[in-house]
Amino acid sequence: MMHALDMETHTGADHALQHPPSVRMAVARTRAGVASRAHEELADEVPVALEYNGVSHAVMLATPADLEAFALGFSLSEGILASAAEFHGVELEEDAAGITAHIEIAAGAFMRLKERRRSLAGRTGCGLCGVDSLAQVIRPLPCLAPARDLSAAAIRRAVAQARAWQPLNRLTGATHAALWCGRDGAPRAAFEDVGRHNALDKLIGGLHLDGAELADGFCLITSRASVEMVQKAATVGMAAMVAMSAPTALAVRTALGCGMTLVAFARGDDFSAYSHGANLALEAR
Asked: Which of 58, 105, 112, 147 would bridge with 261, disulfide CB 3.0–4.6 Å?
């Protein structure tokens, strides 16, 4: 996982934590009818409890790495914070049950959070983070400025380079990634997690910690483009999302409504633009 914009790789492990992002475990293999014993690296996932100013708010299953970025990104993408300036820091505490992120936020943000207080139970699948009414599913999103100078060549370059930015997935084969790419398609930052939502939240948090300009590039995700992914990206001002897998119809309708350029099935040289495709420079090859 890479959370700095300096193109350097790191393991993604938070220095204060004992939980590594992957664990080496014994396995009995059968290959071409021949049995053998070996060891494999498995991506780990642990419960991560998010507390705001001492009040429990959500429990997510996540890869135990880059949790400061995760705490900030989740807070921004879920609309708990209006800006990163309301984030005053996070302290991580672990025990046998998992990891607690003690997040300190501004008084105004905490008052807003208490007004919309809800009980969340996150998971790595398709949940909506425990929303308790239908009205909360499709939340208001900002009107995004058109994606600037997004080209087919940039999309192809990002897809071609994505694997090199996923060391944990190459090791375990079990993680999603979210990458931030410049207008030329060169990846600048990437985060991995067993949960696709978590990977995107980590990217959002990491970019804000690094002071990146979110209008100057696009997000590439290795997963499908669901409505939650579109909402998280749009909430923080990402004008373009490229997914390697499929979009959902609700995600496309949401992207159309907020002005996001949504591209999916980006594999090799191929992709399909599902919303605001007119913003793409589809040059002849």
From this structure: 147
